[in-house]
Amino acid sequence: MKAKKLFLKAKSKLGNTIGKFFNLFSLNYFSLHDSLVHLFFGEVSLEPLVFYLPQELNNDLLETISASKLVTFDQEYNEKNNEQFSEEIIRKINDNLIFFKIEKHWVFEKVIEFVRNAIKLPIKSPFVIINFRGWISKPKSEKFGPNSLHKDGFERGHLKLMIYPNGLNLENGMLEVDGKLYSDTGPGFCVLFHNSDLIHRGIPGQLNNRISLEITLFRSLVGNKRINYYGKPSDRHYKRISSYYKGVLF
Ligand SMILES: [Fe+2]
User: What pLDDT shows up at residue 86?
Assistant: First the structure.
């Protein structure tokens, strides 16, 4: 018991030290940090990873998300909101997308836990889940922002995992990543991909609302389950690496 306590303390100290190191001189160390992760743990395949949520969990997710309040995209400043959006972009987003107000819920926690285990091996390194958000794309909505081909432009080390509780098809909407079209999937379809390296777009449904849930994660030197991933619709990722190691405990 004592040994375990000492081990946890040492890990916590290590995390805080790493955080402080990457905060030195307030420089952007994302590339250096990612090179170290790469060196110690190896690189993640560029090929998107596809899997499914178990049916029962997906049904619970659909029920919970459908009962969530809806909110519009807004510009309220947050530590993870690090992009300035013009009024024009915000207007377009509001015309085409509606966001879920996602708050801590046991079903979301269960989904996150399932996802953590599903990607543990392919991710190779420890990682931090930093953002969880969800939205509805209205059918036949405009080709702009997430619906036009783009790369997310996140700092190195981030990956995205998308969950489509209704599955993807022509009526519900589809996803294109690196020229590959994801369609005719079953419900609870999940895809993990390098969102800033692979060009991608969402394709709105011909008939139905397209429900997307998005988990952003960051490969790190030590894991951290203490980060609050319930954010605002406009949240992206943290600006400083020290934020990923905040209060690190296991
Ligand atoms: Fe994107």
Answer: 82
The Cα 122–Cα 144 span in angstroms is 32
Write out residues in the chain with pLDDT < 70, as ranges: 1, 19-20, 22-28, 75, 77, 249-250
Task: Say what the pLDDT of residue 215 is.
Answer: 97
Distance 196 CA to ligand 1 centre (A): 8
Which residue has tokens 């079903």? 107
Q: What is the pTM of this model?
A: 0.88
Residue 12 C-alpha to ligand 1 middle, in angstroms? 33
Question: Going by CATH, does the domain composed of 30-238 fall within 2.40.40.10?
Answer: no
| Separation CA 104–CA 117 (nearest Å) | 19
**What residues does the ion ligand 1 have nearby, CB within 5 Å?**
152
Cα(84) to ligand 1 centroid in Å equals 16
Could you tell me the end-to-end alpha-carbon distance of the chain, in angstroms, rounded to an integer?
15
Exposure of 149 by Cβ count < 10 A (0-12 exposed, 13-18 middle, 19+ buried)? exposed
- Ligand 1 mean position, distance from CA 83 (Å): 14
Q: Is the dihedral of CA 127, 82, 36, 243 positive or negative?
A: negative
